[in-house]
Specification:
Elements lengths: L11 E5 L5 H8 L4 E6 L2 H13 L6 E5 L2 H8 L10 E6 L7 H11 L3 E9 L11 E5 L2 E7 L26
Parallel strand pairs: 1-2, 1-4, 2-3, 4-5
Antiparallel strand pairs: 5-7, 6-7
Length: 172
Amino acid sequence: MSAMAPWIPGARVVDLFAGSGALGLECLSRGAAHVTFVERARPVLRTLRSNVDALGARDQVEIVAADALRWVRELRPSLDAANRPFRLALADPPYGQGLAPELAREFVRLPFADQLWVEHERRESLGDLDPARERHYGDTVLSLLEALPSGEDPEVSPAAPDPPHPHPGDLE
């Protein structure tokens, strides 16, 4: 959580595959303005609601009972680069089901947040996607994908340095 701390205060956050809500609730405790939790498992939703109520945070959250990937895909028609609904998207999908790479591909196709922080197994590759940052914790990896600013060409990495300029002697 400390890696994303600078972006939390005042942020609108979405916690995908929310489970008990630990990630989103931690963001609220660190100053997030609002958290949308997306979780499909009914028994887990009861725990999530109980945790939100225990913290008195009902007015700062929305709890969506839905499949996280389907929910993200349904957001897509209303999105554009200038109107992303969230600053941070956090995801801790179940391991071994290919959900982390699938979510990452959806994010790259049309970002729904400025940043996606996705937790996945070390052996579960995000494919040819190049995270802006990765943190390794044993067999777990926390990968950060960042949305390109409006108007950026997705074929050019914003972190790529300019090509070296030739020295006058190299032109001959």
